[in-house]
Amino acid sequence: MVVNKVDGTIICTCFVKGCWYGFRLFKELKLKIVSKIRVVVDTGYVGITWFHVNLVIPVKCSKKRSLTMEDEVFNCGVLSVWVLNGCVVGWIKWFKFVSDRYCNRRKRFGLRFNLIAGICDYEQET
Q1: Contact present, 29 and 14 (Cβ < 8 Å)
Q2: What is the percentage of the chain residues whose pLDDT exceeds 70?
Q3: 8-state DSSP, 64
């Protein structure tokens, strides 16, 4: 799901069958993003630097190396921007459509999800 940072509207959604991670889906779709657009992603998209230049990724810590104070301050700045995405996902999960197991016909999942996303966008505007 791609969310506009300015007003929190959902720009784009995509779905696949099964368990796929976001970066794998990004690579398979070959989604082109204009280089002027600044993209903020989570740590699951570490390999995206090959596909997009103007990018912000939080710094990961490892078992051998903990985060420095500068890394923690940087991550706080990134996560303050990322909060909007979490709010949008929370609005969609409020409908129990994504948070529970989907038992209906799979071919209509995208349509139903986009309708719920439209309702969330409409509710946010008002």
Answers
A1: yes
A2: 94
A3: S
Own/partner contacts of 113-119, CB < 8 Å, gap of 24 or more, are 113/13, 113/15, 114/13, 116/92, 117/1, 117/10, 117/13, 117/92, 119/95
Q: Which residues contact 83 (CB under 8 A, 6 or more apart)?
A: none
Query: For position 6, what pLDDT does the model report?
Result: 79
Instruction: Kindly report the length of the chain.
Output: 126
Measured CA to CA, the distance from residue 42 to residue 79 in angstroms comes to: 9
In angstroms, the Cα distances linking 14 to 55, 78, 79, 90 are: 21, 24, 23, 17
